[in-house]
Each structure stands twice: as C-alpha cells, then as structure tokens.
Amino acid sequence: MTIRRVLIYRLGSLGDTMVALPAFHLIARSFPKAERRVLTNFPSGSKESPLSAVLDGAGLVHGYMAYPLKLRSPRQLNNLRRRVKQWKPDILIYLAEPRGRVKAFRDALFFRSCGIRTLIGVPYSRSLQENHRLNGKRYYEPEAARLLRCLSSLADGRLDDLQSWDLRLTMRERARAKQALHSFKSDLPFIACSIGTKVDVKDWGQKNWKILLRQLSQKYKNYGLVLIGSEDEFGYNEEVSRSWAGPKLNLCGMLTPRESAGVLKMAKIFVGHDSGPMHLAASVRTPCVAIFSARNKPRVWFPYGHDHQVIYHKTECYGCGLEVCKREAKKCIASITVKEVEEAVHTLLLSLDSSISS
Description:
The chain is an alpha/beta fold. Helix content is 37%, strand content 15%.
C-alpha cells in the first residue's frame, strides 16, 4: 500500500509539542514521501504558542488541520469529520495525551468513521496509558518515551539520539537570535531565565525570584541575564529583573519560540519553571536548573538529558494534576528555597567550567 497522506493527532502548546519532538522525527523517517499534516488546536491565549510555532521550518510536517477545543456539538463533530474525509488520510498517528481507555476507544471510532483504516499509536491498553515506573520505582518514564512506546510498531524512536530533539533552526532564525542579543558584548556569558507560567501551581513566586536574581547577580558579576517569555509576561519580568545588578535583556514577546531557541542555545545555562522555554533550552542542549511543582509525577515532564539540575519536592499529594492548589497552598513548590536553587545554579556552572578546563 502506498502511503500518500498521514494525519497526526496532537493537541497542546509549546511544552506539549517539545516532548513530542522525537515522535515527529520518527514519523518523518517512517513516511518520508508522504504528506504529513497535524490535527491540532490553535490556542487563543497570548501565553500559549501553537504547535505550528515550534514545527514550522523544521520540515517534519507539511501542514495543519484545526481541531476545535471543547468539541461537543454534533455539528462541530460532523464538520471535523467532513474535513478529515475530504483530505483522505491513509494513516492516523495518535499522539494525544492519555485520557483513559474509554476516550481512546471513542477517538478511534471517530477516526475510523472518517474513513481511516489504519490507526497507529492509540493507547488501548493500560500500559500505554501510563508512564512506567523507573529506577526502583522512584521516578517515572518521561512522556516522550511513553509516546514512542505507542509508536513502537513503526521503528525505534531513538530517544537518546540528539537528532531526535533537533528543531532544525534555519539560518534566518539563528541570525535573528544573534541580532536580538546585539546590546550584549559578544563575549559576555549570560544566564537565560523564564519566570512566567500559565499554570498557577507552577509559579514559584515573585519574591523568591527577586531574591534569587539579586544573589546570583552579586555572585556572578561577569554574567548577564536574558529573559524569555510571552508578550504579556514582559511587565512581570521587567519588575522581577530589577533585582539583577548586572546587564540584562528582556526579550519577552520579542521572538518566536524557534528564535528564542536560538537565543537559549547561546546561553550558559537556563533557570526557570517547568515550562515551554525550559523544554526549548533542553532541546538545544543548554543545561537547565528547573523548578518543578509536584502536580505531575517525577521525571514525566523533566527536561530530557543528563546535564540538568531539577528541583522537585515529592509531597504526599504529588501527581494531583491540579492547575490551582485548593488545599495545600502549593506546599510542593512553596517548600523549594532560594538557597536550593542558588546551589543548583552553582553546581551546574561549576560542572560546566570543570568540563571545559579538562
């Protein structure tokens, strides 16, 4: 059977797209001659970047089909079914987050009703719905690894291959990133930072950030600070960064996610919340100091790689999945001290200096 059209079902924004990057590379290798489109949502909020903002220019997909969020009415469902049928995909690749086996079966029935005979990646079993426990049951399998398990019928996903995380930044995007840093001296090392977050339980707090940046700027006087984020985070980042004593540059809202990745690639380290920019930094092999709440299970959404310092306090309510903490006053992330983060930054910079000198 000749595969001419492949439809990929993947919702989410920046962080969700980044953890699925190895899966997109696998799909492109498996169907190099097919037209590949993504059925995805297009977030309306200014804090959220659509999947296309990450994949455009990478050559991994050729187009997109809009998926209406909160799809409920029969009319919406029929409109979507008609659009999918008109395109006539040969294969459906299922990359949706796990939402239970019943919803997986329901989704499969919908796509079959669109005339798609071959479905790959639908997590029918409990094993494919869950992130496996690792390392003596202390940590859980990364979400990127779970997605590749769902696609294991295609080929080895090459999770540890650096090319599987390659955004394939264009020359223009790299040039734009360099241009954005023109106010810094060319030899000035800098720490990239992302303070904002659209999820309340991931917010470490303005007070903590101000103290941390003040202390880091006093300790690392030869470093600059570059802030990455969305346009509506500009003012918040400007306020917090006033505590940084050295050179600083607020690029919130100034760059596309891919151009931001170009800036992050030139950073010495990244410091920030569990966020899309954190995953961007990890993808371009910039070591991260990542501050996590315990809303997700440990390691599922950690930055991928071995050179990162992740601060995660496993409380008894870990894995709650909440966006707003209703009873515990965010005690998981609130219990992370400035001293912990400062020591993690010091450890990471020291290890990088040691590797260069050796």
